[in-house]
Amino acid sequence: MKEHPDKRRLSTNKPELEVHNKRGHHKDTETLFVNPNLEDDEIIDYLREPNSDYSSEDNYSEEDKVSIAEELSEDEWEDVALHDIVPIKITSHQYQLSAERKRKERLAKKVSENRKRINYMRKLKFSLHLTMIPFMINVLRERMKWCHDERLSKRLKRSVPKALSKKFKKWGQLPNDKRENNIRTLLLGLVMWFRDHYKINSNGFRQNYSRLHSLIKDINEKETFKSSKDIEQLLKSQQKYYGSRLPLISRTFKEDVPYDGVISHIRLMAKRKMADRDILTIFFFTILQNIIPNEKNLYLCFALPLMDFEAVENGSNQANSVSDTVPNQFDSDLLQPYFWIELRFNEKYIFVIDPVVHLNKEEIVTKYRIDESVSIFQPNDQYGINFKQRFHYVLRMNYNSNQINDVSPRYIQNLYYRYMKLPHDSVVKKSRNYISYIHFKKWLDKFNILTDDEYGNYKDGLVNYEQMAKNNVSTPKSYKELRKSDNFFIKDMLQMRQIMTPSNESPNLFIALGRRSVSKKELFWKNQIVNLKSRQHWLILGRSIKPNEAPLKLKKTRKTPISMAYSSTNEIKELFSWEQTVPSLKLKGTYIDSFNIKRKITDVYFYRNKYKNVEIYMDYNKPDGFEFVNFSDILDVRALIRDYNKSIKRDETKTSIKYLDVVNGFDFKQKHGYAVPVINKILVNDLDFKIITKLIKCRSEVIGLQHWMSFITKLQIKDKLDKSYGHI
Which example biological process does GO assign this protein (predicted)? Predict the structure, then answer.
């Protein structure tokens, strides 16, 4: 039998019982006929119904399959026209939409978790940065003590050739006007001799940001540190990432000289004329102090090698890469030194000397004005070459004084935010750079025990450095740099609750923004930004608006669908600055009755508001004659008061205790779009406070006895088990 191209072979066996379902399909145990009048969506919905006989093959048993196969033999087939048969196509559009939605939800969750992890890692790095500050300040003081060692000074002085010593003596006999012209040549010759005879044989200070990132990358805020093979390998192979350091503390000192601690190792390094480049700078500093004859001011400068909490980790900067391992013992990957020297003969000029690192003669010994900035020691990361160094603070210490000065504005750019006159709630105070500076300044003041005269000189120096920091700023080149800057902003960056105050000290700088259409924007100092808050916000912070103060700005709040049902107009909030507020006063403790007599308030319900509580945001706002009772995790104070009030209902000699819940703030994160009151204490009068204190004491004793009873019961059970089954 030939097959027709428009026909299919179907069974001719008709069902014994034909049933029509609700959608018009012919339901049969053998054959499915589809009504052509139905739409495609209705056919698909029917086939997806779980109660349909054709939704799954599990409705057939093995016996049914065998019987059907026997009935459908070749003799019972014939050609049937298919012009009334509708093909069924089940689309997966709905499944694709749900899968896309789930994929976006998973991606958003992953991004959120990754952002939380990165923020937590930045907090860890910043904490490490703050912890290192006092230790690094102490490094400068301890190394200055090495320079005062007599045996070390004599050995280093004897190592200088007599010809060089004679030249410095002749220079000391010259008139004052000719000395400054010849000293640079002598200093340069002394540096060249020093580099020929003193060699580098070990590594100095360095920070490895990628190694630290690899150690803490798997740490989350809610998890503890878990050691692994990779972490153990990083901890054991410190020499690979920090280089070889000469031991400064050793119990077995093999030299035939008495061991005096760390200074004995430093003397041995001077004898062998080999050390790391940081200690070699100390040696040259000591030689200068002994070889220059006349009066001078010699300073040892130290750029603190702190952890860079803003370091960005990328694919090319990982702990396992070659770029993060120490290349050699000379620290050739560190392009800038951590120690250098300042030499000053008068109040106009200084000489900056780098005896080890720089190769250019113009940078080895350079003459600067006293108020001029120095740029040769600033790590330049313009091409990504020197990403391992970043200087936050530069200190200097005089040979003849214990005073440590901060000279960071001379060597580091964009530090004017440290010397700005900032408002009380300035945005600069919230930046981590400024928080780090405040922490650094506190520790520096602790190391400097200054007298009145020394503090006067120290203060005059700060005034000069303030002007130097203002001049030593660079203009941001992109919007990304502008957002990270602590010095500048543009008007477009002002938020809804911020205004800009006028200032006479404008930087007169501009930034070009945009790619296709470039527009110039004027830059302003960031201390001109003033944060504004509403009356309610200031009340939460414990401050109230001064009388007759006009708002600096009006803000229109958005209405939610729930609030729009009660009011069709938007609420306008008045915003005020810190200068327009004063500390909130105490709640009044007296009132004047109808007879014009002043009476004391004893009823706590006098302060109850429409929400049946009282809002006291600061402890000093508490009225006189009343006390706070804080909540406890051990017992419920309010339940204790209710039980007491029930027990004295029939006792007419006693009065019940009255209290009010105290709202001391609002939680804006618990429920999005809502301010949930924070209640963790109650307000009672003085008499009730004494009663509550006794009740809490008695209940605490009962709870303690209950714990003892439980403990004794467990001991009895243990003794009984030991007697019955022996000790386990």
Answer: mismatch repair
